[in-house]
């Protein structure tokens, strides 16, 4: 499979996809017909227009899967797919409703380049169990696309030592997940991404990632780190420590 999984699509002080534009345009085929999946936000037309504007200078033809009436046909006629960020529960619910969950999984496993950002990156994992979103809708299942066998936590946030907030930190929440499930979690800080190609996986972007394993201390992964070992894990859910 050929995957580009971004933690975020907008970086502070920069335009949409600007922080990763060279990587994005290098990932997409030249002159690609890009199927964009906008279902994580309510206004599909405006969301598609934003992506179209960001990639126009690169010669990428962006087509919203909601445009034309048949999302599956739009996907089938594309050279690559981009699943945008927003609310992960709303997105997954729409993928089930439209039949895109199965179609996306099969197409990407068959070689279609897949780019995700935030919620779209969550979709590449086995389940939604490590997302940061509020469940504003209830999808038929938490089961996502399972393009990789491990979990990802986009927008991974380090605790602020100056904060007086007493709620759980992101690390504490992921530790709770690992108490109930035996599957590694890759925390992608904003500005970072995961690249998967030719059976290899590597951390990219501007900031290191953080890797969580059950029964082990979290590990920092520098930009450029090879994490191909994660592609061979066998996830086990609902297995208490």
From TrEMBL:
Pfam families: Peptidase_S51. It catalyses: Dipeptidase E catalyzes the hydrolysis of dipeptides Asp-|-Xaa. It does not act on peptides with N-terminal Glu, Asn or Gln, nor does it cleave isoaspartyl peptides. The keyword Protease applies. The keyword NADP does not apply. It comes from the Bacteria. It is found in: Cytoplasm. Belongs to the peptidase S51 family. This is Peptidase E. The gene is pepE.
